[in-house]
Amino acid sequence: MAAATQGLVQTSPENNPHVPKRTTVKALVESPALTSIPSNYSYTRYPNESDASDPDEKIPTIDFSLLTSRDPLQRSKVIQDLNKACQDWGFFMLVNHGVPESLLKAVLDGCKEFFNLPMEEKMKFADKDIWKPIRFGTGVDVKVEKFFTWRDFLKVFVHPQFHFLNEPKGFSEVSGEYCKRTREVARELLLAISEALGLEENYIEKAMDLESGFQLFAANLYPRCPQPELVMGIPAHTDHGLLTFLIENEIGGLQIEHNGKWFRVNPLPNSFLVNTADHLQVLSNGKYKSIRHRAVVNNKDTRISIAVPHGPSLDTVVSPAPKLVESESHPAAYMPMKYKDYLNLQLDGKPCLDHNQLTFT
Ligand SMILES: O=C(O)CCC(=O)C(=O)O
Ligand SMILES: [Fe+2]
C-alpha cells in the first residue's frame, strides 16, 4: 500500500470510443471493442523489478495449531520457525488457523457479488479521500499519476469500528465474522512474534494498543486481461500495518521479493498468506523487514484477493522497541511516528518508510 495511492479516475478514451469516460477495469474488460489494452494501462516497472520465477526454496509454512498447543516445547519450536520466517522472508503461509474454509469461501463470494453490482451502486462509494471508511476505486500508478493498474478495489475500515455495506445481502455479516476471526488469529500470532523478538509476550499487544487496532478489509478485483504482460495488477509495494493476511479465489498472481529476486506464490489450499509490514519493521528496529510484493494478472480468469492489514491503533506512536535498541551497536533506525500520520503520507505515494527511517538498515 505504501507505493500506491488510488482513487476513481478518468481514463482518456481517445483511442477507444467504446471505453466509458469514468471507468473501472471491470467495465473496460466488458466493453465490446476491447481487444488490446488502452495505452494508459501499460505499466512501466520500477528499476530492478525483474520477472518472477517459482521459488527455489520452500516458502515457510507455519502451523497455527501448534502455536496454541499446550505443549511448551512444540510452541517454542514454532516460535523459532516464526522468527526465521519473519527474518528471512517476511512472508509465510499460515495453515491450521481454525477459520473455516466455508467462511473464506463465503467472503470471497461476497466480494465477487459486490464487484458484480451495477456500476451506479458501486460508484456511491467512489472517493479519493483515504479516510472514507468505505471506498470503491480503481488502481492508479502513482509514479506517473495518469496511468492505471489492472485492478478495482473495495476498502472498508472494519476495526475498531466496523463499517460495511448493506449490499449485496449477507456480505456484511460474513465479512464481519471473517474480520473478527482473522483479528483473533493475528493477535495470537503477534503474541508469538513478541516472544520471537525476545520481548514480553504481550509487548506488541500493549505497545500497539491492539484492543483498538486499525483493521482494514481490502478486496481486489483483477479482471482477465487481453495483454497481461503489459499491465500490472498492483505494483511492488509494502503494506503499512504490522501483519497482512491475504486470501484469493484460487487464481494465482501474488509475487514476493526475496533476496532481491521475485517469486511466484502458489498458496497451500485454505491457508492465509501472511506478510510482515512496515510497522513490524519499525517496532523490531529493522530485524524484520516489510516485504515487497505485487500482483500480476492473466488472460483467462478474473482473480479476487482479500488483503486484511492488521495495524496499531491510529493514535499509537510507533517506535522501535527499547529492548531492541542498543545505543552503540544497534541504534534506533526509525523515528517515532503516529500511525495515523504515517497513513497520511500514503498520499505522497512514496514508500512511507523513507519518511521515518533514520538510517538504512
Ligand atoms: O492481490 C494480491 O495478491 C496482493 C494484494 C495486496 O498486496 C494489497 O492489497 O495490499
Ligand atoms: Fe499489499
From TrEMBL:
This protein's UniProt keywords: Iron, Metal-binding, Oxidoreductase
Annotated region (Disordered), positions in chain: 1-22, 37-57
SUPFAM superfamilies (alphabetical): Clavaminate synthase-like (SSF51197)
Biased composition (Polar residues): 37-47
Domain of life the protein comes from: Eukaryota
GO MF, one annotated term: oxidoreductase activity, acting on paired donors, with incorporation or reduction of molecular oxygen
Protein name: Fe2OG dioxygenase domain-containing protein
